[in-house]
Amino acid sequence: MDHNSIFSPIKEDLALFDRKLKENLNCDSKLISEVAGHLVNRKGKRLRPAMVFLSYGACVNSKIKFLGRSAVMNVALAIELIHTATLLHDDVIDQSKVRRGQVSVNHKWNNMISVLMGDFLLAKALRLMVETNSTILLFIISGATENLSIGEMNEVQESCNFDLDEETYLEIISEKTASLFTASCESGATVAQADKKVQKKLKEYGQNLGMAFQIIDDLLDWVGEAKKTGKGRGNDLREGKVTLPLIYTLRESDSRTRNKILKLLKNDFNQKDFDKILSLIKDNGGVEYARRKAQIFGKRALGCLSELRDSEYKKALQDLARFVIEREK
Ligand code: FPP
Ligand code: MG
């Protein structure tokens, strides 16, 4: 199962979304148009807008029809623009060369262009949100944007801290990633005017899904295939990012193994050391542990949907929770 087949109930909505996204990136500035062209050239999975549409659909339970600038479309666009802006900034912070299988904006142009393009997208998102005329939607989405900035800042602060504990790691990924997943589902349910209990459940679904997503994202940085993920392996470690497979192994392994890993971590990053650390992580159950942890969050996400009435949208949200855990890219 891939995300495109899961999203079949909202296929038309996502097609309209893509057209509107391009429209929103139209700009007189030649440079902005060039960078925008590069960004839409290789599109992402559209997970967040899909979550907005599916949460909305699961609540109103009628064929979703969008009339031009409806609030749900604006929210989906704003969230995707914010997400793309964070990636543009994140690639500068991480000094990444590749994003979604193609050269990153910071690498193709430079850091300044990447940051400024992120700012442009953020401003566009703001405008789209203001157009909804909804303080509550603005509140949900601005709150998530604030949280992900805090998460990224905390991650930078914890860089190269090999004593990082699981609780702090989970807090960081909750802020940097799960916050926007949460906002996607909550805002979809809010636009549909679902009752408060349903809104809360969908919000929790998004939170748990976001946690599972980032744990798997971090795991794929250790064991994923670059051809599938569109980014190389070992980037997190190279950047000093300490993630769950390593946290678990450092915590649970015997002192000999732990010291061996710590010694390797003190070296400047090289592929050979990475492979040695990975092999110790594998031998000590770190990969399995992270996968299990993601599965727990995935199951929690599924549990949040139990009281929703049956619909193709609910089914898609369920399938999405399974996809996020099983994904290889
Ligand atoms: C990707 O994580 C990064 C994030 C989920 C959050 C990034 C947030 C910021 C840069 C701060 C706020 C920015 C704005 C525009 C408000 P990752 O590095 O683990 O994922 P990756 O492997 O895909 O790069
Ligand atoms: Mg990154």
Any overview of this molecule?
The mean pLDDT is 93. A hairpin with a 2-residue loop joins strand 1 (98-99) and strand 2. The protein has a single domain, classed as Farnesyl Diphosphate Synthase. The protein is globular, with a radius of gyration of 20 Å. It has helices at 3-6, 11-25, 30-41, 47-60, 71-94, 105-108, 111-131, 135-157, 166-191, 196-223, 226-229, 235-238, 244-252, 255-266, 271-283, 286-304, 312-326, and strands at 98-99, 102-103. Helix 5 (71-94) packs antiparallel against helix 9 (166-191) and helix 14 runs antiparallel to helix 15. The chain is built from 17 helices and two strands. 75% of the residues lie in helices and 1% in strands. The longest helix has 28 residues, at 196-223. The two termini are 12 Å apart. It is mainly alpha-helical and 329 residues long. The structure holds farnesyl diphosphate and magnesium ion. Residues 85-86, 89-90, 93-94, 118, 122, 145, 148-149, 152, 176-177, 217, 231 line the site of farnesyl diphosphate. Magnesium ion binds at residues 90, 94, 96.
